[in-house]
Specification:
This protein has 297 residues and is an alpha/beta fold. It has helices at residues 16-26, 39-48, 57-66, 84-98, 168-182, 201-207, 210-217, 235-245, 254-270, 281-287, and strands at 107-120, 139-152, 157-163, 189-193, 220-224. It folds into two domains: 16-66; 84-121 and 137-290, Nucleotidyltransferase, domain 5 (2-Layer Sandwich), CATH 3.30.420. Strands 3-2-1-4-5 form a five-stranded mixed β-sheet, with helices on both faces. Strand 2 and strand 3 (157-163) form a beta hairpin. Helix 2 packs across helix 3. The radius of gyration is 27 Å and the shape is extended. The model has no long low-confidence stretch (mean pLDDT 90).
Length: 297
């Protein structure tokens, strides 16, 4: 019987101790001039500290991959340590979202987005079979605009107002439009919004006569997302869709931007694109229990 001789395995590029030192470097702050540890710089640092005599970038990459380290990536954390105020606002919004659709008392979410206006420096070349559409990387900056995005998730209705700014007066005009044109027959509009300093009942008094401001406020019920909890506003979901579907195309003026957004708004309203929210107060108490304050006995 013919048998192969036992073969020696490929020697490890790094010992366990050397790999641990390399991981420790990767988890430390990058040196000045770098926002993360590049592979080659990690190897150079390991040699400088005497952990290895030599090491290739590929070996560094394999060690990082094996230990699920990606120094070039980072996450933004949106759930800080909070207290009762955060939880109270969160549960108020979640309780509202859990209610069934009531046309007499619609739930409306409002948020804003700033948009930079860009015009093409030269005409875009259209796509052809086998050739992508091409646009010049140069562009002309034409100022900014602001989008007020109102969405009624359960009905599948949205409206986008394009303004020059987002002042108290601009906000007040959007609120007036909601009350008098979008929902003139309802009992009350239950409005979900964040804590921006213009999103206050007082903004209506800054824009209108007291009797008019009071008339509008009688039709409104404000529900504020908690500070650092704007993810609870479903208008942000609609804004993300708008960005994906429409805002990648350059618009050099507010009128052009408005036409593009109006077309998307009409299309989505005709299709009654609703938003399904499944995160409940029960889920919050289970999955985010660390956010809840500990009652004092």
């Amino acid at each position: 019987m013919v048998k192969d001789k036992p073969q020696k395995g490929r020697p490890r590029a790094l010992s366990s101790k050397q790999a641990a030192h390399l991981i420790a470097i990767a988890c430390s702050d990058a040196p000045d001039g770098h926002d993360h540890w590049p592979l080659r710089l990690l190897g150079t640092k390991a040699i400088e500290l005497g952990y290895v005599e030599s090491i290739s970038p590929e070996t560094v990459r394999q060690v990082l991959k094996k230990n699920e380290l990606k120094p070039w990536r980072h996450e933004e954390w949106c759930l800080p340590r909070v207290g009762g105020a955060f939880v109270a606002a969160m549960e108020d919004v979640l309780e509202l979202y859990a209610e069934r659709y009531d046309p007499r008392r619609p739930q409306v979410c409002l948020d804003e987005k700033s948009v930079t206006l860009h015009a093409d420096a030269s005409p875009t070349l259209p796509a052809r079979p086998g050739i992508l559409a091409r646009s010049d990387y140069e562009y002309v900056r034409c100022g900014t605009a602001n989008l007020f995005v109102c969405v009624e998730p359960l009905r599948g209705y949205r409206h986008i107002a394009v303004t020059d700014r987002r002042t108290k007066q601009d906000y007040a005009q959007v609120i007036k439009w909601l009350v008098d044109e979008a929902y003139p027959e309802v009992e009350v509009i239950r409005l979900v919004q964040d804590n921006l300093n213009t999103h206050l009942p007082g903004s209506l008094y800054d824009a209108f006569e007291p009797s008019e401001a009071r008339r509008l406020l009688r039709k409104l019920e404000f529900h504020y997302t908690p500070v650092h909890g704007s993810w609870l506003n479903m208008a942000e979901i609609e804004i993300a869709i708008i960005g994906r579907e429409c805002l990648r195309r350059r618009a050099g003026d507010k009128a052009t931007l408005g036409r593009q957004l109006a077309a998307l708004e009409t299309e989505r309203n005709a299709q009654r694109r609703t938003i399904t929210w499944s995160f409940t107060a029960y889920d919050a108490r289970t999955k985010l229990r660390r956010l809840y304050p500990i009652p004092q006995s």
